[in-house]
Amino acid sequence: MADKIYEYKDKENWFLGEWGGFNAISGLGNVCGDDLYELSQQVAKLVASKCCGKCHGHGEGGCHKDEFNGYNVTVVKKSSDFQLIRFVVGMINEETNRHLEVQQRAGAVVVTEDDQLLFVHLPEDGVAASAFFGKSSENAFGDTILIATRNEGKTKEFRKMFDQLGIKVENLNNHPELPEVEETGMTFEENARLKAETISKLTGKMVLADDSGLKVDVLGGLPGVWSARFSGPDATDESNNAKLLHELAMVFDMKDRSAQFHTTLVVAAPDKESLVVEADWPGYIAMEAKGDNGFGYDPLFLVGETGRHAAELTADEKNEISHRGLAVKKLMEAFPVWKAEQ
């Protein structure tokens, strides 16, 4: 019996796996068995390409068949070959101490190890050679998304998330020649679209941009898109918070100090319809600032009915429940479907 049961589940995919089988992928219900058998035969070659790491005395030439172990995967539902291959490869890496990497490129799924190309899985209709190989030798394997920011901390968070999809991440620091895009929109979506779509047209790349801010109900949604410069062109976090407290000085009932942090994320690609997701984080504006974590209006923002200020949360706690964290979760659900449709 397997020591561990592996599982991957999202809205469109559900896989279960165990180690100790014969490199088999099977489907339940209406999942097409012929497609899974062919895919299983292809992926099985990855297991056989090197010693499993758990045998003894056979050198680098491979494993004894008597000692050979493989995966046994059951597919409950599937919309993405990439997610299935990534799931099986994850099992192989954990059980055999391999370092296989799964990436997407122009709709194909690419598996590499130690800079060596081992496996390419093509969609049924194939892919354009120019899209796969690129127009110059500067193109590396794997799709790339450009984050429209110079903030390395924000980039690190997005890199962690897109790594799960086999997509490489870069930011504007990799492109110092690009101009700053002025946020002249009247809504969060307009500003995020301006950044994402402008930079995508300039670079020909897939680009992710975000716009976030604080909306206070009694102020008619202000500071909104002007959150970063609420107190003027030379605004600081301290001056913005001071102005907000001033604006609410005569609002004493906490229920009348309701507010929401908002984030809109836009992914743009040349000649394609952009993907838009958004999320709100409800709360209230406190009478005084508390907490040393976070930035912006975090010291004044009371999280829901918890009584805690956003600046009192750890980074991990905030990422789980914040507007940006919720928007990113929505993006991770919608992005694979959007990319496949495009």
Automatic annotation (TrEMBL):
CDD domains linked: HAM1 (cd00515)
Catalytic activity: XTP + H2O = XMP + diphosphate + H(+); ITP + H2O = IMP + diphosphate + H(+); dITP + H2O = dIMP + diphosphate + H(+)
Cofactor details (free text): Binds 1 Mg(2+) ion per subunit.
Residues binding substrate: 149-154, 212, 295-298, 318, 323-324
The EC number(s) this enzyme carries: 3.6.1.66
Keyword annotations from UniProtKB, A to Z: Hydrolase, Magnesium, Metal-binding, Nucleotide metabolism, Nucleotide-binding
Cofactor: Mg(2+)
Gene Ontology CC: cytosol
InterPro entries: dITP/XTP_pyrophosphatase, ITPase-like_fam, RdgB/HAM1
One annotated GO molecular function: metal ion binding
One of the protein's GO biological processes: purine nucleoside triphosphate catabolic process
Pfam families in the cross-refs: Ham1p_like
Active site residues per record: 211 (proton acceptor)
Residues annotated to bind Mg(2+): 182, 211
Family (UniProt): Belongs to the HAM1 NTPase family.
HAMAP family: Non_canon_purine_NTPase (MF_01405)
Assembly, per entry: Homodimer.
Function (record text): Pyrophosphatase that catalyzes the hydrolysis of nucleoside triphosphates to their monophosphate derivatives, with a high preference for the non-canonical purine nucleotides XTP (xanthosine triphosphate), dITP (deoxyinosine triphosphate) and ITP. Seems to function as a house-cleaning enzyme that removes non-canonical purine nucleotides from the nucleotide pool, thus preventing their incorporation into DNA/RNA and avoiding chromosomal lesions.
Record-given protein name: dITP/XTP pyrophosphatase
